[in-house]
Amino acid sequence: MRWISSAAGVLCALDACHSRKVEADPLVTGLAAVDELLPGQHWRKGNVHEVLGPSNGALFPLLVVRQAMTRGAIVWCDPAGELYLPAVAAMGVSLDRLILLQPRSPQEALWAISECLRCKGVAACVARVEKLSMLDARRLQLAAECGGGVGLLLRPASAIHQPYAAATRWIVRPQPGERTVHRWTVQLIHGHGGRVGESVILEVGRDTNLVRASKAVADRSSAPATKAITA
After folding, report:
1. Residue 227 DSSP one-character state
2. E strand or H helix at 135
3. Which residues contact 58 (CB under 8 A, 6 or more apart)?
4. Res 186: pLDDT
5. 116-168: per-residue pLDDT in tens?
6. Which has more confidence, 9 or 156?
7. pLDDT tens column, 191-225
8. Which of 119, 154, 224, 228 could form a disulfide with 209 if both were Cys (CB 3.0 to 4.6 A apart)?
9. How many angstroms separate the CA atoms of 135 and 181, rounded?
């Protein structure tokens, strides 16, 4: 694992990402109920995707990140040091592929995120963004097109009516769980060619880290479990 800090307009330690990403099959989460909602049933590379929901809703982007890590470095913007690394590793994300981005201000964060998205060695860049102008959103999308990776912007649910330039937008809502199970509803709210308006239920075992997904109207007990990949 490495850290990136930005200072005086210079992004440090990004040289670890300079190699070109390995081209592979279309990027999917491996959970059929989720991937079937996507346009083309995969995450479009060279695009930004938005996930709206609570600040602790990192499970959904982790499902994408753990598949993307074989293609290049994973950058996670974590200015306050809130990312819980043991949970990240438990979800199957190799910390050797993870680079933590720690900017000092929201303005610096947008610049640094854009630089990471432009880097061809970055397979995915995850960042929580509270406010985003249309100009900023467009700049991030253009950066992703240049680098060819995937940008995952984590935004509050209140940003649903704010400007965006994302290929897909999702809203994540926590649901009542059980003593040993975390549960969320994930709904696609934007994505040309995707199943907009449809939802899935995501569940993860607190003790086993097994993840499963099923259509929101389906019987969750019949949904097959997907094993977490160990780091």
Report:
1. P
2. helix 134-147
3. 83, 87, 88, 154
4. 94
5. 999 988 999 999 998 899 999 999 999 999 999 999 999 999 999 998 999 99
6. 156
7. 999 999 999 999 988 888 889 999 886 444 444 44
8. 228
9. 40
Q: Helix (H) and strand (E) counts for the chain?
A: 5, 12
Residue 191 region by backbone torsions, left for phi larger than 0, else alpha for psi between -120 and 50, else beta: left
Specify the length of the chain in residues.
231
pLDDT of residue 229: 40
Cα distance between residue 225 and residue 219, in whole Å = 13
Distances from the Cα of 45 to the Cαs of 64, 92, 147, 150, 217, in angstroms?
12, 21, 9, 5, 30
Contact, 211 vs 31, CB < 8 A? yes
67-to-60, 97, 123, 153 alpha-carbon distances in Å: 12, 12, 10, 17
CA distance 47 to 146: 9
Q: What pTM did the predictor assign?
A: 0.84
Pick from 170, 169, 118, 144: nearest CA to 45: 144
DSSP class of residue 14 equals G
**In whole angstroms, what is the distance from residue 96 CA to residue 89 CA?**
10
CA pair distance 197, 76, nearest whole angstrom: 28
